[in-house]
């Protein structure tokens, strides 16, 4: 009952009077009316079943379909099923298909398949509902089994059934099955169907077969926004963020207007690339088109700016967001963490708690990571020990990995090993990798061999692990062991990942390798490098040849250090960018200790800020100091 009194309303709910304003009572009214309509319809259904006067309705398929549409739960679906069975309406394909659909909708797949299996006649809708039902609940074996049954019985798959099976291949990353389904698509002449092609592009992209995805994408007669978004995301996930952003520009040129989902994908691609000018362009586009900075888009932009080297811009986005969830807070904490600003990360945590948001596993990984990279050992250990008691979060292998890294960086290797040995969760390659890295830093060959043995058991095909152990042996002067590791790599046909450094100048990315002479301005670069070396010698710089892990004489070691890719990129930045502007470079491997010292001194003698993103974190060099505090 509702009564208006000077714009206020009295709502009677469950025998209790509530006073509400007019706007707030509208949802209550709608809910009551909807419930009454549904109840009236179901009461009518029951009256029809009880009365012989309505026999003509009991034989009308539309009556059962309408009853199913108005069902609110599985019990009501079963009631309709029972009545349809009693009155022989299960022989009606429309009714039977609708029942299978609603059983699948309520995730009662046993009921759905039981009915489906007993159907004398099935059409394309029957098959697509059953295949899709299994796919939606993640029962991929039955999804494939039902599809196989469809093919074997001579039925023709259509553009409703095939996308379900293709998405199952995508979710399982089962490329072999995906290619088999692709052959079936060709066989039935559906290779140019828009829905099927879009699903195949998505599947190949997720399986990292990006060339196959692009081949299909280019063949499509029409491409909608979803297909463009899938292709852009596929390139980003496969490590080709540059092509992602090229496709984004091409999409707009063809008149396809991106939505928020597409923009999140583009932002993700830009974060992978780490190009600041692209980040600014995308941010400008988002503001110009007035996209709302909601939780999903805002969080993606925080991550984008942080990975492009500007944690201040990431914080500006964070502060602009009207609504934040635990992922938004975690992303901002993580951003401070890998920029070496551990204290700011810890300061943000109580603000999050005061806002009423409790941390989850990701938040605590971000906090522990921030403590690890800022040398905040005791703070990190306190968070780790209080996770369950204070926040009801059980530690998993990622939390243990952060603590092993925390202790390892601080030189407390024995404690780190004891923690690993006492773990009740399964150890993974990330955990042993963190411990092996700490052993390298502190030159503990015995523990390094123990870590490497476990690591190579888990990932025998990862060349990085062999290289790391080889480097540890080289630092210890154990050249015979270095040779054994290199022979083992040769036997297993593994190659060391080459080091590359990228720098962005005039909206273009330039790439350098060690000793690179292929750049058009190579002569100027080496002249600048020579000038820098002379100035650095005057302030006491001595190349640290411990970072040349080859059994060669000192002079040759100095020559190798001199042309490291980071140094070439910085020299190019100095001659190609305006004075007083930051130099931003990206390294695909961990920056070496000698290059770290070089960057600090160059920032002092040139007055330039140098921002380095390596495989682990960001380093901000300014006036002869690094944001990591030489703790990395």
UniProtKB/TrEMBL annotation:
PPR repeats lie at residues 123-157, 193-223, 224-258, 294-324, 325-359, 396-426. Gene3D superfamilies: Tetratricopeptide repeat domain. Residues 540-632 form the DYW domain. It comes from the Eukaryota. One of its GO terms (molecular function) is zinc ion binding. GO terms for biological process: chloroplast RNA processing; RNA modification. The keyword Repeat applies. InterPro entries: DYW_dom, E2_motif, E_motif, PPR_At4g14850-like_plant, PPR_rpt, TPR-like_helical_dom_sf. Belongs to the PPR family. PCMP-H subfamily. This is DYW domain-containing protein. The lineage of its organism: Eukaryota, Viridiplantae, Streptophyta, Embryophyta, Tracheophyta.
